[in-house]
Amino acid sequence: MQQLQAEIGLLRDSVLAKEEELANVKGRCAQFEQLSKDIQFSMDRELSAKSAEIERLVSSAAEAESLAAAKEATLSEEISALKRSVKAIQSELDEQVRISTESAKAAEELTTANMDLTKKVASWEEEKNALIERCLNTESDLDFERDRALENKRRFDEALSAMHELGRANQSLQMDISKHTSRTWLDDSAAVNCTSCGKVFSLTVRKHHCRVCGLIFCAPCSSKTAQIASHKNPVRVCDSCHTEVQNR
């Protein structure tokens, strides 16, 4: 009996321990349930935040995709423009190469022309020196010819003076001959006008004696000549005397 009571006591202790353990388990379950609720609430709140974040990210992704598409289109246009620019630059580069080639060719031609010009300049320099020498010689010859011309002028002046003297002597001789004829040799100072046309004598209208009648006429009225007995060669006569001599 005591043993049974002891076993009952043990069982009662065991039941109490189990009840206490059950209470602990229930408490822990309640804690777990509260923790689960807290976790669920936290997870719901975090899920809501994540959903909002996902929506924001999706919206951002859509915007980014739209921007990427626009950027891609812009980049495509820029690439096309760059290709055109590269093509234009290539064309310009080809043109520059062509111009450079032509410039090099022109420079070579200019160098050749410069060499030819240098040779011509040297030749011209030699010709110039030769011309200078010829000019110096010519200047010496000109000095000689100038001296000769001055001498000839002096001789011509002397001959002209002698001719004037002969003219005056001839006029004096004509006057002497006229004195021996019935005609009178009119003195220069006595004539103011032409005996024929009446033109007034001046520096430009010169006086001329008719070798037949001895009167004084202008050049047009005494432009004819006639052969008379007192002279070996034909002499100046007035128009009237010329007609008279011709009718003899």
TrEMBL record:
Boundaries of every FYVE-type domain copy: 188-246
Keywords: Coiled coil, Metal-binding, Zinc, Zinc-finger
One GO BP: endocytosis
Coiled coil: 72-134
GO cellular component: early endosome
Family matches, as CDD domains: FYVE_EEA1
Annotated GO MF terms: 1-phosphatidylinositol binding; zinc ion binding
PANTHER family named among the record's database cross-references: EARLY ENDOSOME ANTIGEN 1
Full protein name: FYVE zinc finger
